[in-house]
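Sanity check

After download, print the first record. It should look like this:
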Amino acid sequence: MEDLKAQLEELKKRLEVLEESIDPVDEVMLSIKMRLRKKLEAGSLELDEARAAKILKSLANPDRIRILKMLGKGSMTFKEIKEALGVESPTVSHHLKLLKQTRMIESGDGYRITENGRLLLRLLEIITALGEVEE
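Expected structure tokens:
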């Protein structure tokens, strides 16, 4: 029994070392993996076509992807986003509204990316790295 306790303590120490060395993006992926596992165990992981289409639509604009990338580096105000994109206020408002509706960003004092937004941004990086899209 003491041997098992010692092994468990050793495993806990190794896990702590691993957790400290995890890249923030990998941390997001691990969090998503845990959330998906819970949904699988509950039997509630199904594709909602309408929701999937809404999410994809919200990503189907280069400026919205730029917003996610910028917010991935830190929170920003509306004015900072507007200046960085170089577009008019109504356009920025529209982009932010779509990203908020799909829970990729949230607002308070400023705008910040959510865990879902980080995951989708990471998935876009992976998808674009896998191959080029022909025009």
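If your output differs, re-run the checksum step. Summary of this record's structure: The CA atoms of residues 21 and 60 lie 34 Å apart.
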